[in-house]
Write a structure and sequence with these properties.
2 domains; 8 helices; 277 residues; alpha/beta; two-stranded antiparallel sheet; eight-stranded mixed sheet; globular; single chain; Rossmann fold
Length: 277
């Protein structure tokens, strides 16, 4: 019987002969895909999936149908650059304006749901919030709503619905009053008549000509003010008060029962005033 030492010598001798036949006794070369010369199958996969480069060497813009959601920027009439997120595609758009003290992300879950229904949806940050520039000057945020409206129209939207929570709803009322029939619908969620210098006037409520939906929670402190605006507003209007919670604005989405009801009522309103083609 051969000893383990003999076996070891035989193995070493065999390895030496194998390395000699391959042209050298150094370590094996790196695989081609890791050493810079990619294997053909890897190269083919990269060519298909990688975006083409533009003339300046930057990645080409991803088509909207492939890039949802995608970050966007636009500029207000007074020169403030606002940041937002665009969801979906289509010629019917929704502009989502956030409440205090949140930002656009409070609307993102609903924005995705609406985009899946066929809407082009813009959630954005008011000036001084999130991805937007400028200072938090609340009396001026109706200009931000108007800029958001103009932006989605520039993207090809023929119909636009304005939806705002709390101060975002107050600002949306002011913008809807200024635009009149150019707005397909208006949703006001948990909004006060006045907030930190941002105020809806009776003349603006009289100017509302589009269908509008007004919603709030029963024990929310802002509900009496919202009901007052609803009573004074013109146009085809409806009111819904959530009895199950005292949540405010987009926080209602997180309420156990009212959250699903809020989403359903928003989608039903959209399908009535601005159905997708």
């Amino acid at each position: 019987m051969k000893t383990p030492k003999v076996y070891t010598l035989w193995i070493l001798a065999g390895l030496a002969l194998l390395l000699s036949a391959c042209g050298g006794a150094g370590p094996p070369a790196e695989p081609a895909s890791e050493a810079g010369a990619e294997a053909p199958t890897v190269e083919a996969a990269v060519t298909v999936s990688a975006p083409e480069e533009g003339e300046a060497g930057e990645p080409a813009e991803v088509p909207a149908s492939e890039g949802s959601p995608r970050a966007v920027t636009f500029v207000t009439a007074d020169g403030v650059t606002l940041g937002g997120t665009l969801f979906g595609t289509g010629d019917t758009a929704i502009v989502l304006s956030h409440m205090f003290p949140t930002d656009q992300t409070s609307w993102h879950p609903f924005a995705q749901v609406a985009a899946e229904q066929g809407y082009l949806v813009l959630a954005y940050d008011f000036r001084g919030y999130g991805a937007s520039g400028g200072e938090q000057v609340i009396p001026d945020i109706d200009q931000d709503v108007r800029a958001a409206y103009d932006f989605v129209r520039e993207q090809g939207a023929g119909r636009v619905v304005l939806i705002g929570a709390s101060m975002g709803g107050t600002a949306s009322v002011k913008t809807a009053a200024a635009l009149g029939d150019d707005v397909a619908g208006l949703v006001v969620l948990s909004s006060p008549e006045e907030f930190h210098g941002l105020e809806v006037t009776q003349a603006e409520l009289d100017a509302l000509s589009m269908p509008s939906l007004w919603m709030s929670a029963r024990t929310d402190m802002v509900t009496p003010a919202l009901e007052g605006m609803f009573e004074k507003a013109a146009g085809d209007k409806s009111l819904w008060i959530f009895e199950g919670s005292g949540a405010h604005g987009t926080f209602i989405f997180d309420a156990p029962l009212d959250g699903q009801d809020l989403e359903r009522r928003l989608l039903e309103f959209l399908s009535r005033v601005a159905p997708v083609s």
